[in-house]
């Protein structure tokens, strides 16, 4: 027997839709409006068409920032995904130590972004910071404010410290869903540790790994607060990633038109790659069923 649908539940969702429209759609339309107009001040705007988009796409400054951003994201994913898997595989499965490890792993994720940047800004200073003073005492010429390599290393290590826990916890959740019978069967077959990981653990972690890669890609590709607090985008433009360059363009230079076009292109790139990840995840789920 067909059951009649009750659409009254949509009234409960309506306030959320209104809130999303107010907080997301309306500001987005404002940005779109700025991206196709120009102004000489006094709120006098005139049509500019796609001029700002052409300027952003052909800008060498944006190309350089994009190159730094892609390199940073690639390094972050190359370090955090294998490290997160390694940590998850060696975490206790049951008992007090498992609970303690989960608490310790979750702690970095609870720290606000600006606090993380401030911690590492002080930690890396050569005059008062523990890291900076220890490296200097060991004979390393470390100074993240003047050397681009030191600045990159500091930002990368800071992000690894802050976000590897997320990958590890997601992988740990995937490992916990594996029935004990799988391990018992592998033990009876005298399977090696690598074979257990390759044929039992990795397939079970495939879904959560894709989620972890998606989340870390989005976060690292949009990173702003931590490197801005630590290095301010310097030395020079060494750590000026896309988000930092966008803020400098919009607030520092007050170029609202180019900044609006920049932000729309930025948003579409992230949306496109996220859609690709979602499609891959959906296809994998269909294959495993």
General description of the model:
73% of the residues lie in helices and 2% in strands. Helix 2 crosses helix 12 (256-288), helix 3 (60-89) crosses helix 7 (148-176) and helix 11 runs antiparallel to helix 12 (256-288). It has a two-stranded antiparallel sheet with strand order 1-2. The longest helix is centred in the C-terminal third of the chain and has 33 residues, at 256-288. The protein is mostly helical. It has one domain: MetI-like fold. A hairpin with a 5-residue loop joins strand 1 (37-39) and strand 2 (45-47). The radius of gyration is 24 Å and the shape is globular.
Mean pLDDT: 87
Task: Kindly give the count of domains.
Answer: 1
First CA to last CA: what distance? Answer: 29 Å
Order of helices and strands: HEEHHHHHHHHHHH
CATH architectural label: Orthogonal Bundle
Percent helix, as a range, is: over 70%
Low-confidence stretches are none
Taking the sheet with the most strands, its summary is:
2 strands, antiparallel
Oligomer: single chain
How many helical elements? 12
Strand composition percent = under 5%
Number of extended strands: 2
Query: How large, in whole angstroms, is the Cα Rg?
Result: 24 Å
Strands in their spatial order, largest beta sheet: 1-2
CATH fold type:
MetI-like fold
Helix/strand-derived category reads: mainly alpha
CATH superfamily: MetI-like
């Amino acid at each position: 027997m067909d059951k009649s649908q009750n659409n009254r539940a949509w009234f409960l969702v309506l306030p959320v839709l209104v809130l999303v429209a107010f907080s997301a759609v309306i500001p987005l339309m404002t940005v779109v409006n700025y991206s196709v107009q120009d102004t000489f001040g006094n709120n006098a705007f005139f049509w500019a068409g796609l001029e700002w988009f052409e300027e952003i796409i052909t800008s060498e400054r944006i190309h350089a920032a994009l190159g730094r951003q892609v390199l940073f994201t690639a390094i972050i994913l190359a370090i955090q995904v294998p490290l997160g898997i390694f940590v998850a595989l060696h975490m206790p499965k049951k008992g007090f130590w498992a609970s303690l490890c989960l608490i310790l792993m979750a702690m970095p994720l609870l720290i606000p972004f600006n606090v993380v940047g401030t911690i590492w800004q002080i930690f890396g200073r050569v005059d008062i910071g523990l890291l900076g003073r220890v490296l200097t005492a060991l004979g390393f010429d470390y100074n993240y404010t003047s050397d681009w390599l030191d600045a990159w290393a500091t930002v990368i290590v800071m992000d690894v410290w802050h976000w590897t826990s997320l990958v590890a916890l997601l992988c740990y959740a995937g490992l916990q869903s594996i029935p004990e019978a799988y391990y018992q069967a592998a033990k009876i077959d005298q399977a090696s540790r690598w074979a257990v990981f390759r044929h039992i653990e990795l397939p079970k972690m495939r879904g959560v790994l894709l989620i972890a890669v998606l989340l870390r890609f989005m976060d690292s590709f949009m990173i702003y607060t931590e490197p801005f607090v630590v290095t301010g985008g310097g030395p020079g433009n060494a750590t000026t990633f896309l988000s930092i360059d966008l803020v400098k363009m919009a607030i520092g230079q007050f170029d609202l038109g180019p900044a609006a076009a920049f932000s729309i292109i930025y948003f579409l790139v992230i949306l496109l790659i996220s859609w690709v990840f979602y499609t891959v995840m959906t296809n994998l789920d269909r294959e495993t069923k």
